[in-house]
Design goal:
The chain contains 10 helices and 2 strands; from the N terminus they run αααααβααβααα. The protein has 257 residues and is mostly helical. The longest helix has 32 residues. It has a two-stranded antiparallel sheet.
Length: 257
């Protein structure tokens, strides 16, 4: 062993692994855009979910191998903007705007404005997350995470692309869903991060049965299953907020004896 080998950082090569996973997420997002341009919307939807898998792995691998860095965090954020900000917006644009423009130029303007709103909301969501990461409660996300918003949009377009004649109501619904996903990203609703879940803790047998049930649903009809899963998660925080509001009003409205 020479002096150069002694001075070389031990884990220098390990840094490639999380950044390689981040590059995988970036590539999947880029491919989703290319597939949408080629009107292969099923492939585009699958690519967005593949990007989610890579995005979920890179941070965990970095923590497990103690190779997290400021560079990795910035690279991950830029990758998220492409995969979960621009890609879903362009997929929706390619699928919906060309169709809705047949109903008039006003609908076309509304369509591409909604797509831009979603992309801008994703950028704002990521910027807010990065600026508050050090002080934010780790148990909750402020606003809908961009991968979840992308999952809703990609799954909806994936489902709708199989329909030969969706009509104006279906197109309007698609853009409404995209706009709501964007609005939830920049909202102040507290979404559960599930980071407090202890994977080594004991759970009830009935809870274990949910795991194969979810896999069966995904295997039977992936786009519908993903739409239900991410849609339920997106609705959870607003519903909890409304439930707390109703409970407070009911308590304050009860007359004292």
């Amino acid at each position: 062993m020479n002096e150069a080998d002694i001075d070389r950082p031990r884990h220098r090569r390990v840094y490639w692994l999380p950044n390689l996973l981040t590059t995988g997420a970036l590539f999947a997002g880029f491919y989703a855009v290319v597939a949408a341009i080629d009107w292969k919307f099923e492939n585009a939807g699958i690519a967005v979910f593949v990007a989610m898998i890579f995005d979920g792995l890179d941070g965990r691998v970095a923590r497990w191998t103690h190779t997290d860095s400021a560079f990795g965090k910035e690279y991950d954020s830029l990758s998220d903007m492409v995969s979960f900000g621009l890609a879903p917006a362009i997929v929706t644009y390619q699928w919906g705007v060309a169709r809705i423009s047949e109903y008039g130029p006003l609908w076309r303007r509304i369509g591409w404005l909604v797509c831009f709103f979603y992309a801008a909301a994703a950028a704002l969501r990521l910027a807010r997350f990065n600026s508050r990461a050090a002080t934010q409660d780790k148990h909750y996300f402020e606003g809908l995470p961009s991968p979840s918003a992308a999952g809703i949009v990609a799954a909806f377009v994936w489902v709708a692309s199989a329909q030969t004649d969706i009509g104006l109501p279906g197109l309007v619904l698609a853009f409404v869903v995209t706009a709501i996903a964007g609005a939830l990203m920049i909202s102040r609703f507290a979404f559960n991060s599930f980071k407090q879940v202890n994977l080594s803790a004991r759970v009830r047998f009935t809870h274990i049965l949910l795991v194969p049930l979810i896999f069966v649903l995904i295997a039977s009809n992936p786009p519908i299953a993903f739409l239900l899963l991410f849609g339920t998660y997106a609705a959870s925080a607003p519903l909890q907020w409304a439930w707390r509001k109703l409970r407070r009003r009911s308590r304050t409205g009860v007359p004292r004896a």
